[in-house]
Amino acid sequence: QAQVAESGGGLVQSGGSLRLSCTTSEHAFNYYTVGWFRQAPGKEREGLSCITVGDGDGSTHVQDSVKGRFTIAEDNAEKSVYLQMNNLKSEDTAVYYCAVSALTYCDLIRLREHEYDYWGQGTQVTVSS
Questions:
Q1: Residue of 12, 59, 68, 113 with fewest CB within 10 Å of its CB?
Q2: How far apart are CA 45 and CA 47, in angstroms?
Q3: Distance separating alpha carbons of residues 35 and 112, to the nearest angstrom
């Protein structure tokens, strides 16, 4: 069973930046797509971005709601996937989750909870105004 873990959350002022990292266990090698989601209090979980990894083509997608501020990429040295978040706003406050999927490609249509198989515990991001 693949294990997924996020790190890098914290408290930041509005306009600041954070970089979240997602690491997976060896058994995640069979999983081709990594996605980032977030859930704010009282709201549904929202898909933010995804990337194909391993033998995938490395394609990435970012939701329009955060495009231009959030970037997803694979860190080969750290064997992780990170989400770089810049110009953070108070509405970005949420618990951020990383998840892996057996989908062989990443796209925004399938950036939904039920398409992802294993999830991390989440990391809290709080943006103060």
A1: 68
A2: 7
A3: 9
Give the tokens for residue 108: 């925004």
DSSP helix/strand/coil, 35: strand
- Please state the φ and ψ torsions of residue 91, each to the nearest 5 degrees: -75, -5
- CA atoms of 60 and 46, how far apart (whole Å): 17
33-74, pLDDT tens digit by residue?
999 999 999 999 999 999 998 776 788 999 999 999 999 999
3-state secondary structure of 111: coil
Nearest 5°: phi and psi at 35? -125, 150
| Residue 28 pLDDT exceeds 70 | no
Q: How far apart are CA 54 and CA 47, in angstroms?
A: 21
Return the residue matching tokens 């990170």: 82
CA geometry: angle at 86 spanning 41 and 117, to 5°? 55
Q: How many residues appear in the chain?
A: 129
